[in-house]
Amino acid sequence: MKIRTEHPHDHQEVFNLNYKAFGKREDESRLIERIRKSDNFIPGLSLVAELDRKIVGHLLISKATLKDGNEETEVLVLAPIAVNPEMQKSGIGSALIEEGLRRSKELEYGLVFLIGHPSYYPRFGFKPGRDYQFDLKQYNVPNDVFMVKELREGDLLKVSGELLYPESFFK
Ligand SMILES: CC(C)(COP(=O)(O)OP(=O)(O)OC[C@H]1O[C@@H](n2cnc3c(N)ncnc32)[C@H](O)[C@@H]1OP(=O)(O)O)[C@@H](O)C(=O)NCCC(=O)NCCS
Hints:
By secondary structure, this protein is α+β, with helices and mostly antiparallel strands. The chain contains four helices and nine strands. Helix 1 (11-21) runs antiparallel to helix 2.
């Protein structure tokens, strides 16, 4: 299994994979299409897991804003992630997340946020965002579901504000 950057010729396969992984729902596939077309897209952070020339997993990390009064900080959001249902629980999701976080750090981002299952993401170092100085109002989710991971040492305590997901997430 190989983790690599997504290429334009992968788009249809990535669409199909997300459709299947999210229970025959197009929402996440359409979200990916909107993010790709937006200023928040970072090509090197759209990753695919490839096995026998087939795409078996996909992860997207893109830009968002943290707003604290007049101050705005560019941060990252991880969404969505999908693994072929027939191949889940074999480490593909973990490999995608670890590579995504490694590349995000390399690109010198300080924080990455997500909305996700509290039994999965803490193993990668994600912590409840509201336990620090972060807030999320756009989505009404419980505290343990809104998570943050520090990529640059000190940012968790130094940076604060409300996370604003970009427009692509809502239309
Ligand atoms: C979430 C997902 C990407 C994980 O990928 P994966 O390749 O199965 O993950 P890994 O093999 O690295 O890790 C497996 C672990 O994740 C856990 N896990 C998988 N999906 C989970 C979920 N929705 N909630 C909680 N835990 C989950 C498994 O129970 C397993 O836990 P264990 O190691 O304690 O046994 C995959 O299950 C998936 O595509 N789900 C459908 C789409 C989705 O819900 N995406 C997340 C929201 S954006």
